[in-house]
Design a protein that fits this description.
Blueprint lengths: L6 H16 L11 E8 L6 H20 L7 E8 L4 H13 L5 E3 L3 H6 L1 H7 L3 E2 L16 E2 L5 H15 L8 E7 L2 H4 L2 H11 L2 E8 L7 H9 L4 H11 L1 E3 L20 E4 L2 E5 L10 E2 L7 E4 L13 E4 L1
Parallel strand pairs: 1-2, 1-3, 3-4, 4-5, 6-7
Antiparallel strand pairs: 8-10, 9-10, 11-12, 12-13
Length: 318
């Protein structure tokens, strides 16, 4: 759920929605010196690594707006709740915000809470600006009070599949695509749309792998992907593009193992987080299946650095 949303874009959308809310049936709630905005944040749940940054962005946008005469001279007051990506807590917090705090609108976060509160927000006529771009709330006839600032996950996946098809050079066969996704509403959101579009434009959808909520890597899923039809080079290229060490692991660790060559590392974004690329090239990655008594396990070779800046030898059943 990692996004690069500009402060300007968020402020323009938030300001527009607040003005919409202030002229709606909730207008009586906008008569005081403040405009109350509910804020559902994930500060402690499984998406808190990016949820914290998103929350700070919402706070910064509200602070900037308030520092520039607010909205029609009124300040935004955020009513914050950390729901830890637990849907029942999000629903309970929404009810408190609407009935007790009398907020004009909600700044939501994840796909789970956005989809769960879609019908209630429409019934209450409470605008809901989401950090989720699920296609389930993109139809204004079904979700008239849901707003977000980017293409839906389904449209993003379709755009990528379209590029895969157009960039494919081997005309003797269809390109192959395998999908790894998180085991939550966010991860599952675009899958059906992606499969349908792949079939429509002539892409072989060969594998789907579900990633648990917390994991160190996806080696076992990648090996299953290979068995399903993705060749080793495709697996290597996936690992090369999607494996890195978070930059934060090197912060305040100038003398730590592996830190001496930080200036030569290539920085990339993985799921919205700044990382140093793990491998030099796809060709430098070796996929190993151990033999002997370990023949039923795949092995990942550990690097020379251990701990948060390196890796450990790990085996996975296949």
């Amino acid at each position: 759920m990692a996004y690069c949303i500009s402060l300007r874009k968020w402020i323009v959308l938030m300001g527009s929605v607040v003005l919409l809310a202030a002229t709606s049936l909730n207008a009586q709630q906008a008569t005081g010196p403040e405009l109350k905005v509910g804020a559902l944040f994930d500060l402690t749940g499984f998406s808190s690594d990016i949820g914290k940054s998103y929350a700070q962005g919402v706070r910064d946008a509200a602070e900037w707006t308030n520092g520039h005469d607010g909205i029609n001279g009124k300040r935004i007051k955020l009513v914050e709740v950390d729901y830890g990506y637990k849907i029942p807590e999000a629903v309970a917090a929404y009810k408190r915000m609407v009935t007790e705090d009398k907020v004009l609108m909600i700044s939501g976060w994840g796909t789970g809470d956005t989809e769960a509160l879609r019908e209630q927000a429409a019934k209450d006529k409470v605008p809901y600006v989401s950090g989720s771009f699920t296609a389930r709330v993109s139809d204004p006839s079904q979700s008239p009070y849901n707003f977000f600032v980017a293409p839906t996950y389904s449209d993003e996946l379709r755009a990528w599949l379209k590029w895969v098809k157009e960039d494919w050079e081997d005309k003797s066969r269809n390109p192959k695509v395998a999908a790894l996704f998180a085991d939550n509403p966010y991860g599952r959101s675009p899958m059906n749309a992606g499969k349908e579009f792949a079939k429509e434009i002539g892409i072989d959808w060969v594998y789907e792998g579900v990633l648990p909520g917390t994991f160190e890597d996806a080696i076992s899923q990648l090996l299953s992907m290979q068995k399903a039809g993705a060749d080793k080079q495709e697996v290597r290229e996936f690992l090369f593009e999607n494996t890195g060490v978070p930059v934060r692991a090197y912060e305040d660790a100038a003398d730590a193992e592996g830190s001496q060559r930080v200036s030569s590392y290539q920085e990339i974004l993985i799921d919205g987080e700044r990382c140093y690329r793990k491998f030099h090239s796809p060709a430098s990655i070796r996929l190993v299946v151990a033999g002997g008594t370990a023949g039923k396990f795949s092995a990942v070779l550990g690097s020379w650095a251990a701990g948060p800046r390196g890796s450990e030898m790990v085996t996975y059943p296949i």
